[in-house]
Amino acid sequence: NAGVTQTPKFRILKIGQSMTLQCTQDMNHNYMYWYRQDPGMGLKLIYYSVGAGITDKGEVPNGYNVSRSTTEDFPLRLELAAPSQTSVYFCASSYEDGAGGTDTQYFGPGTRLTVL
Amino acid sequence: QQPVQSPQAVILREGEDAVINCSSSKALYSVHWYRQKHGEAPVFLMILLKGGEQKGHDKISASFNEKKQQSSLYLTASQLSYSGTYFCGTDGPISNFGNEKLTFGTGTRLTIIP
């Protein structure tokens, strides 16, 4: 199993450009998450999904969009990139059995994004 | 609503012990602990559920006091490989779908020197 994979690893964008960060997991996990981590800071939840076709906002969703058409893929779309979106983006997945609480989250290697 | 961790940073010599604390202002269902090395993704260490159960992982253990809404991570006889930033994650507010979101703490940077 490859686990959680993310592409690209690095990207530089100009202000106003758009891009999609890709995330794929091969563990058949139903839940998937997008976090951003600013330098020296903790993880902030952007969006998450509890299954194909179902997504919800996290703590910092402004400027981002997501979709989940399959169990495996959870792309993150940045529209009109701004310098404030310079960060490292992590995708994560977990299997939730609906009994309550949150299970182990497995993280991808991250995408380092710089907006100039 | 973000859990607060203390200390923010700690430097230890190899073989010394450390305690990292995580405190929340909300009632908790579970507490997770992750370690992140510089330039890498966070890696899961352990989960603690309601009931105050203490869990261990090699020389790393943790406790969860749900009444005090606190958790502590104990690193015994620290090794160089323990260096990194430790994050606690707590179950966030109930969402439309239930209790699936983690809110991560502020982080504790641990440096182990020979």
Q: Give the termini separation of chain A.
A: 36 Å
As for the CATH topology of chain B, it is Immunoglobulin-like
Estimate percent helicity of chain B. under 10%
Which CATH class of chain B is shown?
Answer: Mainly Beta
The top-level CATH class of chain A is Mainly Beta
Can you tell me the residue ranges of chain A where pLDDT is under 50 for at least 5 consecutive residues?
none
Largest interface: A-B, 28 and 28 residues
In CATH, what is the homologous superfamily of chain B? Answer: Immunoglobulins
Number of domains of chain B: 1
Strand content of chain B: over 45%
Helical percent range of chain A? Answer: under 10%
Give the overall shape of chain A.
Answer: globular
Radius of gyration of chain B in whole Å, from Cα?
A: 14 Å
Give a verbal description of the structure.
The complex is a heterodimer of chains A (116) and B (114). Chain A has strands at residues 4-7, 10-13, 19-25, 31-37, 43-51, 54-57, 64-66, 76-78, 87-94, 106-107, 111-115. Chain A is mainly beta and 116 residues long. Chain A has a single domain (4-96), classed as Immunoglobulin-like (Sandwich), CATH 2.60.40.10. In chain A, strands 2, 4, 5, 6, 9, 10 and 11 form a seven-stranded mixed sheet that branches. Chain A has a four-stranded antiparallel sheet with strand order 1-3-8-7, with no helix packed on it. The model of chain A has no long low-confidence stretch (mean pLDDT 93). Chain B has a single domain, classed as Sandwich (Immunoglobulin-like). Chain B is built from no helices and eleven strands. Chain B has strands at residues 4-6, 9-13, 18-23, 30-36, 43-49, 55-57, 60-65, 70-75, 84-91, 102-104, 108-113. In chain B, the strands form two sheets. In chain B, strands 2, 4, 5, 9, 10 and 11 form a six-stranded mixed sheet that branches. In chain B, a hairpin with a 2-residue loop joins β6 (55-57) and β7 (60-65). Chain B is globular. The interface between A and B is medium-sized, with 28 and 28 residues.
